[in-house]
Amino acid sequence: MQTKSTELPYDITQWRQGYRSQPQEYDYQITEIDGQIPPELTGTLFRNGPGLFDINEDAVRHPFDGDGMICRITFKDGKAHFLNRFVQTEAYVAEKAAGKFLYRGVFGTQKAGGWLSNAFDVNLKNIANTQVVYWGGKLLALWEAAEPHRLDPKTLNTLGIEYLNNTLKPGDPFAAHPLFDPKQNRMVNFGLKAGKFDTTGLLTGITIYELDLDGKVVKEHSHTIPGFAFIHDFAITPNYCIFFQNPVGFNPFPFLFGLKGAGECVKFQPEKPTKIIIIPRNSHSGEKVQMLETKSGFVFHHANAFEHDGKISIDSIAYATFPEIEEGKDFRDTNFSSLSPGQLWRFEMDLQTRQVESTLVEPRCCEFPTINPANVGYPYRYVYMGAAQTCNGNAPLQSILKLDRETGEQQLWTAAPTGYVNEPVFVPRPGGTQEDDGWLIAMIYDGAKDRSAVVVLDAADLTKGAVATLHLTHHIPYGLHGSWTDEIFIDSL
Prior knowledge:
With about 500 residues, this protein is mainly beta. The protein has a single domain (about 10-485), classed as Methylamine Dehydrogenase, Chain H (7 Propeller). Helix content is about 5%, strand content about 45%. It has four helices and 35 strands. Strands 2, 30, 31, 32, 33 and 34 form a six-stranded antiparallel sheet that branches. Strands 1-7-6-3-35 form a five-stranded antiparallel sheet, with no helix packed on it. It has a four-stranded antiparallel sheet with strand order 8-9-10-11, with no helix packed on it. Strand 24 and strand 25 form a beta hairpin. The longest helix is centred in the N-terminal third of the chain and has 9 residues, at about 90-100.
């Protein structure tokens, strides 16, 4: 276990504090502000992430099993307002009433009673804890293994499961990484479902959905790929959806017999290649799905993809190995130095020769890439990421890195030594003409003060420091993903 050291830009004890439950729900105007909120910054930042890690001192085994909690930060006229609410999933409501875990979690959380109580119970908990998006007049809390939950954007009250006008059936997954095509005005998402078999073995189904500006599903097509697929994110271009099928295997028997969670049964297979699945967005074009291969590695998140000269380029955060869940170990006891860091790689795919070239772009430990939403699926110049303070090795994310993909120039803003960074979200400046004309907004946990803050940075120049730092009166646990809308859902601040 690591302890505080002058050689590290972080205190592991302070970092652990960010993984404490926040059972309280707040509603207040943020009044403690350093700097000034830009008056033209108008709209709403939504954030999602696990907010509850224990019930009556019985803790989840992994933070990804924590119940989803939505944060809403409203910006208007140089002021800001904070609101947070738990997603009232069926499981959350039932467990809160019972005062104990009633469901198994994907990443190892079990019901009381040992393996006998958990054996053959495959009814996993829909925790709605990964992403939240406002599209087609609906606010949706997403978790990749089940249907979305619809929320009231004015109150964050849960309205129920959303089936997208009966496009989804009960149990259908709708992933937590929708992408928004800025030129076709579409939300593109997928659902992943394994369990079918043929003579070659296990098959995984991928269903792709495209929704118009009114939230109506205008395109839906399904495809089957061989093998088990652990796919969290994907990328799009005007003509393709791109998926990385990580080289992992899944042994279901420990899960079925109640010994482990499903996520604990996933094993990295370094001797196998990573497969890249390229699916045409126009299912009527006659163009077939392509499967290419690149060297073994693991990808959670992609920054962006674009087409050029018969090729597809995609920038992704890749790991040398999959960070497998260690049975019986407290996730707060992470030894960062023993884990491989996520790094930014460029993959060039030639659709004619079917060859893939990979190049390391940024060796610094980084995650949660984001870009100007106007460039999603198209050529782009700037990428922003949560990053470690140090240039080498693995460490908590304490900084935000801006990388110019044309020149290689970098800018780094840091919250070290006591601050820990969540995913930055890019907000375009109204009337802006340059790709980096806008703001980055990120939630920061300050381990020394045991409070969180919302930081606004000038995306064109991170070296200026924070434009505004909005101090919350409490902590918010480390989150996963968030989104921005220009809409305002409260009458006044």
